[in-house]
Amino acid sequence: MTGLSKITDKILGEARKDAEERLSTAEAECQRISSEYAEKAKQIRAELDAAARREAEEILSRARSGEAMTSRDTVLKAKGMMIDAAFDKAREEILQLPDEKYLELLVSMLVSASRTKTEDERIRREYGDDEGEENVTQCTVCLSSRDLQRHGSKLLSEASARLTDCPDAFVLCDTPAAIDGGLIFRYGNIEINCSLSTVIGQLRPTLEARVSKTLFPEKRS
Known about the structure:
By secondary structure, the chain is an alpha+beta fold. It folds into two domains: 1-96; 98-209, ATP synthase, E subunit, C-terminal (hypothetical protein PF0899 fold). Helix content is 72%, strand content 10%. The protein is built from four helices and four strands; from the N terminus they run ααβαβββα. Strands 2-1-3-4 form a four-stranded mixed beta sheet. A hairpin with a 2-residue loop joins β3 and β4.
C-alpha cells in the first residue's frame, strides 16, 4: 500500500468514525426529543382532561342550582296561590253569610265610617284646618246592586239608631256601586272605601303570616 493509499484510508476511517458518532448522537437526541414531547403531550392531555372535567362539574352544578331555584320558585308560587285562594274564600264566605249577620257587618262598617268622619272634623276644627268650611251633615252610602236591594233601607235605619249623638243624615246612592260587597261612604269631596275587597286587602298584611302558618305548618323534627 502506497503512502497515498494509507493517507486516504486513514481519512476515510476517521470520516466514517465521525459520521457514526454524529449519527449515534443524532439518534439519541431524536429519542430524547421524542420522549420529551411524548411526556409533554401526555401532560397536555391530562390538563385538558382535568379542565374538561372541571367545566362539566361547573355546568352540572349550575344546572342543579338552577333546578333547585326553579323548584323553590315553583313552591313559593304555589304557596302564594294558595294564600290568595284562602283570602278569596274568606271573601266569598262573608258574602254568603245569612242576611242578618251580613247586615250587621254593613251596619258596623257604616257606623265606623261615620265616626271616622266625626273625628276627622273634630281634628280639623282643633287645628283650624276647616276655617270658612261648614261640617257636612248629609252623607251618601253606596252599595252593590245585590246589597242595595236586600239591605238598603234597613242599613240606614239601624246605623242611625246606633248613632243617636250623630247629626249626620244618611242617603242611599241610587246607582249601585261597582263593588263586591261592603259599602262606600261619601261626604263632601271625601270618600271612605269600605268595600269588602278593600277591607280584606288592608287586613291582609297583618293576617298573611298567620294564614301561611295555618296552611303550611312547620314540620317538627
